[in-house]
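Protocol step 4 of 6: structure prediction from sequence.
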Amino acid sequence: MRHPEIAAAGSDRHQSTKALGSRPAGGGVALIYGFHAVREAIRAGRRKLLDLYATPEAAAKLADDIARAGLRPHLVEGRDITLRLGAGAVHQGVLLEALPLPALDLSEIEEQSGIVVVLDQITDPHNAGAILRSAAAFGADAVIMTKRHAPDMTGVVAKAASGGLEHVAVVTVANLAHALERLREDGYLRIGLDPEAEQSLASALLRRPIALVLGGEGKGLRRLTREKCDCLVRLETPGAIKSLNVSNACAVALALLRANETK
């Protein structure tokens, strides 16, 4: 049985191309696409939802979530969404237009796990999204990043995060060094991940709360960021490759920090 919201949307199908072009990207509108990213944006309820465009197949899969949110989806063809987003977007037949998540300040971080992730100019949206996904999976309290030299929290980032963006507090700061100093004042142990560090993360003496600081792709931690860290640690990699992609390194580090809770 079709949900009434989905059945009613069928009358809009002939207007799909016009509807998809009616609200331009940017201008305070976030474009979220991909099944998991859209589903979690609907379920989390942290955003103002504007319009949902979906193929009949995708709408059927999301029917319960659509009904609970009171959305009236526009049924479109997959090619209409591709025309809107570009050929490189793996949208899985669904596109959500919504307002961005509310901006948060460092003072608004709610400490639960006692772990925050700090990004020092990580610019690749796939890496940023994967880090958000890991942060959500391991229950980090927040991800802190700079306003500049960071990707927009929409589109590719949301897709790569696979819903994680909706479940982790994201704090953007103008000056990372000042933010790290503020974290020190708030009692955080600031540990920077560096493949050349002398001590390993597994052997380091740690205490909560912890700020895990990750450097940008290729260049790693900047000099001033390194100076603001209380210690530098590396991941133990017994294999031939001695370093990991930053998003993979983040996942391993968070797993180790979580495992350390049980010791």
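Step 5 (inspection) to follow. Residues 4-98 form a domain with the 60s Ribosomal Protein L30; Chain: A; fold (CATH 3.30.1330.30).
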